[in-house]
Automatic annotation (TrEMBL):
Gene3D superfamilies: Aldolase class I, Quinolinate phosphoribosyl transferase, N-terminal domain
InterPro entries, per the entry: Aldolase_TIM, ModD, NadC/ModD, Nicotinate_pribotase-like_C, Quinolinate_PRibosylTase_N_sf, Quinolinate_PRibosylTrfase_C, Quinolinate_PRibosylTrfase_N
CDD domains, sorted: modD_like
Domain Quinolinate phosphoribosyl transferase N-terminal as annotated: residue spans: 10-92
A Pfam family of this chain: QRPTase_C
Keyword tags: Glycosyltransferase, Transferase
Residue ranges constituting the Quinolinate phosphoribosyl transferase C-terminal domain according to the UniProt record: 95-268
Family as reported in the entry's similarity comment: Belongs to the NadC/ModD family.
UniProt organism field: Gluconacetobacter diazotrophicus (strain ATCC 49037 / DSM 5601 / CCUG 37298 / CIP 103539 / LMG 7603 / PAl5)
Top-level taxon: Bacteria
GO cellular component: cytoplasm
Gene Ontology process terms (BP): NAD+ biosynthetic process; quinolinate catabolic process
Name of protein: Putative pyrophosphorylase ModD
SUPFAM superfamilies for the chain: Nicotinate/Quinolinate PRTase C-terminal domain-like (SSF51690), Nicotinate/Quinolinate PRTase N-terminal domain-like (SSF54675)
């Protein structure tokens, strides 16, 4: 991040000749938010030579005006780290706050309130996944998949390369043998396909863009057939509709919505000591 923003130092501060003067920089929340990235911001400023106190750790909800971070040191160090640290905290807090809004909304979804995990996908902007993951967890969510290496998720695009007649059963049998410690998640795009995947032995059915009414009907059909895969609702899930999916019978909701949330506002005051 520093290599991107100050590859050859801060020209303005250097040209003014003020880099060695002692300074103080305070970060505070300008709006209500779930804090995230304060530790990473502190690491950036520390690396530049500042002394930093983290006043609010990632994961806490704060009100406007709450102090988040305090840094002292040479003006040159503070100016070089200022915008990088501020932008990181604002972007991460935006994701954390949006995730938390979905978590809170999911908890109002009926009998399963508080038991349904909000899982965020890996669709964060490229090369931001580590910080995006941290923000999701700070907001009370979990990661759906960190990457392709950690979970099994069978898409229709995988089944296109299997036997057209019994590809689902073949896939489940193969995965039970080759990845015996993993749960098998199968993405389905219709209730009938979901029933077929459940009969084939899927552990989790990822219902892609199912309307709420179809989730409820599928849950009833599976119960009547004594089939009990977990149901994951995915596609278009947000704070406005998540409670409906939980009430309909989803055991898990999968979303990418937090990654497009606006950043939260972090105010920075930088002055001479």
């Amino acid at each position: 991040m520093l290599a991107e923003d100050v590859p050859f130092g801060d020209l303005t501060t250097r040209a003014l000749g003020i880099g060695g003067q002692p300074g103080l920089m305070n970060f505070s929340a300008r709006d209500e938010q779930v804090v995230c990235g304060s530790e990473e911001a502190a690491a950036i400023l520390t690396r530049l030579g500042a002394t930093v106190d983290v006043l609010r750790s990632s994961g806490g909800r704060v009100t406007p005006g709450t102090p988040l971070l305090r840094a002292t040191g040479p003006a040159g160090a503070l100016h070089m780290g200022w915008k990088t640290a501020q932008t990181l905290m604002e972007w991460a807090a935006g994701i954390a706050t949006a995730t938390n809004a979905i978590v809170l909304a999911a908890a109002s979804g009926g009998a399963a309130a508080g038991t349904v995990a909000v899982a965020c996908t890996r669709k964060a902007p490229p090369l931001t996944r580590a910080l995006a993951m941290r923000a999701v967890v700070a907001g009370g969510g979990v990661m759906h998949r960190v990457g392709l290496s950690d979970t099994i998720l069978v898409f229709p695009e995988h089944l296109a390369f299997m036997d057209p007649h019994d590809g689902l059963a073949q896939a489940v049998q193969t995965l039970r043998r080759t990845a015996p410690e993993r749960r098998i998640v199968i993405e389905v795009t219709s209730p009938d396909q979901a029933i077929a995947a459940a009969r084939a032995g899927a552990d989790i059915l990822q219902m892609e863009k199912f309307p709420v009414r179809d989730v409820a009907r599928l849950a009833e059909r599976l119960k009547a057939l004594s089939l009990c895969p977990r149901l994951a609702a995915a596609g278009g899930i947000n704070a406005r509709n998540v409670a409906d999916y939980v009430a309909a019978g989803a055991d898990l909701v999968v979303t990418s919505a937090p990654y497009t949330a606006p950043p939260c506002d972090v105010q920075v005051e930088l002055k001479a000591r």
